[in-house]
Amino acid sequence: MKKEDLLKSEFLKQFTSGAELLAFTKELQKRGVEQLLEGEMDAHLGYLKNEKSDNPNTRNGHSSKQIKTADGEFSIEVPRDREGSFEPIAVPKRKTIADGIENVIISLYAKGMTNSDIEEQIREVYGFNVSTSTISRITDRVTEDIQTWQNRPLESLYFIVWMDGISFKVRDGGKVINKTIYIVIGLKQDGKKEVLGLWLGKNESASYWLTVLSDLKARGVKDILISATDNLTGFSDAIANIFPNCTKQICVVHQIRNSCKFVSYKDRKAFSADMKNIYNATNAEVAAQALNDLEENWGGKYLYAIKSWRTNWNELTAFFEFPAEIRRIIYTTNIIENLNGKIRKYTKNKLSFPTDEAVMKSVYLAVNESTKKWTMPIREWGTIYGQFLIIFEDRITN
Predict the structure, then answer these.
(1) Are 49 and 42 a contacting pair, CB within 8 Å?
(2) Distance separating alpha carbons of residues 305 and 307, to the nearest angstrom
(3) pTM higher than 0.85, yes or no?
(4) Concatenated DSSP letters for 290-308?
(5) Helix crossing, 132-140 with 99-110: angle to 10°?
(6) pLDDT tens digits, one per residue of 177-212
């Protein structure tokens, strides 16, 4: 056995139980924290404990304080000064819960746990109580982070921007009503995705999207090459109003769903097969012929389901202007719908939210959890970037 392993073995033999070892580690942590505080006091006063100094401010004993950490709850002695001007950093005044525990609480909240569930989890794992009101105060600090994040400057150009809304039940004026979180994801010039912001409004509308787009512009966005959205009435006009050069693509999957609403169940399979010929076409001309065939086969029975294809044709077929690699990522809003699905997963335990702030806090934390792995460019980025340079060379280089 190596010497260091032998020493470890001899050291551990002095503990007859796990409880004794835990008590030792707590005492070790307690002493470590107290030494940090003593060092902070030395720096605050400008001289060491047993040195002489002309500073009229001197040490003034200690005060006891209970703190809660990942290793449990214990008491420490905090040094005091005569003037009361000492502001410790290691254990700030009026703070009794270590940052590690606060981060655990925020993480559990982000994953959809209620305050009472978090209270129980902390008690079971760490062996001390944290009240639901304390948990609320800890998670409320996220509101400041949201404001900073929501107002941060953005890049001047985004290759693709996906936009969609997700609805939640929120208490407002004594009633529970549906409100919409507007979400925007941008594809940056390095091929990485970024959530550009979250906005809370009433039911999804093109007029509110105009507000969202205006905010993006105010935060520094000068140009968007391609947008991918659902077929909300007036959405394309709102985009054109703020970013007139943007190529607007309406999600084909949304269009298919909306068309099928007007088709009887027994005909949906055949009707969908004919629609598939439209978006699987090799180019816009072949797609237009497939739409004519759809109308010829089904127009007499489901004219309204076909009419919406005609109405939104230019925006539904914009993806045909691009190579296959770009087509695949713009003809649907799958990227943002996947994010919405993860947000739903994290917030499913909350049937309704008491305030606008509460829903924003939950969604913001859910977005943070869901985008932790967004560290790499999208697939085939080298190829896609080259294609963008060829198609939009002037706008990218400028």
Answers:
(1) yes
(2) 6
(3) no
(4) HHHHHHHHHHHHHHHHHHH
(5) 90
(6) 999 999 999 999 999 999 999 999 988 889 999 999
